[in-house]
Sequence to fold (294 residues):
Amino acid sequence: MTRPTTSASELDEAAELVATVTPDSVDEPRRQPPSGRSRWTRGPVPVLLAALIFLFAWQVVVWTGWRPEYLLPGPVTVLGELVQRAGEPQFWQAIARTLVRALTGFGLAVAIGTLLGLATARFPLLRAAIGSLVTGLQTMPSVVWFPLAILLLGLDEQAILFVVVLGAAPSIANGVLSGVDQVPPAYFRLGQVLGAHGWRLYRHIVIPAALPAYVGGLNQGWAFAWRSLMAGELLVVIPGAIALGNRLAFAQEFGDAAGLLAYMLVILVIGMLADTGFGALARHIRRRRGLTVR
Fold:
């Protein structure tokens, strides 16, 4: 007797079922939000509140006189410096160059980390062979790769991208592995009953089920990529391609405390915006799966 075949549309319907039905949602009704939760706890309000608390704590440290103001200027002075520099074309060129590097390196890391994670999860022998290696690469500080990158690739864009990819790809691969490990065995049996095997099983069943952990791996991978990039731009100066990290190093070298803190604020804000984006994506996935009310 031949095994019944399943069309791609039927497998897509199964994937939609995986994306909307979770073990928690089967066993219990839709979860209610914690008591006291309101619209004020979502959106930009918490971010603005955190920024105000940070600025106030910063000003309190300045008021204590712990360091002279020329070494540790207050937030008003630094924000004024930031506004002044925002009127310079070089300021936006540095931000654009850093963002291009970040997105390029992160995109390469997503492709490499995803393929590596899926291949490692698909083949037990490969996972046993390199699974611990991937974790070891994730724990290595990205800055230790720069001597090798500069030796192999020189003081060039490729050296920076090399370290960014090495910093982010292991986290993304581990996110894939973690997501696959959390897929209930019933989902694998469901796919096999529907006639999905090999890549089709992963494409229509496993990957949709592993999506929440994968997004978490992407968020962590971006954090590692951003940190690696800042380390690279502090160490590698490419003539004619000055970026945020380079300007940070120049400000420190010339004793420009206000400029240094202004660029640090820009780096902080970009990191917060990226985290907000990944958080919004994770909330959207949770809403689709009935894990939140709204």
